[in-house]
Amino acid sequence: xxxxxxxGVKIAxxxxxxxxxxDTVLLLHGWPLSxxxxxxxxxxxxxxxxxxxxxxFRGFGASDSPACxxxxxxxxxxxxxVIKSLALxxxxxxxxxxxxxxxxRYLRLFGARAIKKVxxxxxxxxxxxxxxxxxxxxxxxxxxxxxxxxxLDRPALSKxxxxxxxxxxxxxxxxxDWFISIAESASGIGTIKALISLRDEDCTEDLKCITVPVFIxxxxxxxxxxxxxxxxxHKEICGSVLFSLKNSAHxxxxxxxxxxxxxxxxxxxx
Length: 270
Description:
Layout: E1 2-6, E2 9-16, E3 24-28, H1 39-47, E4 51-55, H2 72-85, E5 91-96, H3 98-110, E6 115-121, H4 140-152, H5 154-165, H6 173-184, H7 188-200, E7 214-219, H8 227-236, E8 241-245, H9 257-269
Parallel strand pairs: 3-4, 3-5, 5-6, 6-7, 7-8
Antiparallel strand pairs: 1-2, 2-4
Helix pairs in contact: 2-3, 4-5, 4-7, 5-6
């Protein structure tokens, strides 16, 4: 692990296989997790010879937890700091849920000079919550309740998220507890303020700023980022390719692990 300085905030970065000279894959996790959720993709990518970079967003995992900076613009600047510090180029930028929204915000702010392609995994864009003219996603009232719970009993919030929101298929209690432990590694302030950004950010304009190939992988049983949202991504991003996993929910990278990894590698090599 190394730390990258982003405006005085230390961003934890985990790098694998740099010496191999392979193509670079940069992984951006979702709320309220860390880079650890990509364990079963990192292992595969390393075996296939990719140069893998996985970062923890500010407030999550091993990164600093400042009092501010949890809007998508700042998180995209953190991604830029990582790309610039590690001198990355020809990057396949992979974003899960909130990380997918940040990936597209990065392209809007910094362009695609360092980016080869984008892979969106159940990405929370163009919006995460329902609003006038956007009847999809999560109710704002539910997000408000989650924010309140995070201020009173964050471990219970993590357990509810792992048990009720992530999966469509049955998984072992230890596996779910592992996800809970990753969520609990986040800071309280990061958990709450990133959730506020999920509730309030409008990424409609981000979808219009894409100049690289985009691959979308979704779970047909996802109730957090439902298929109607990824349909909008597919429609608005010219030339995007959509992969669907029929028996997966929001944890699209794990519910059907083998099928997902097949789609994922296909997106990387196309």
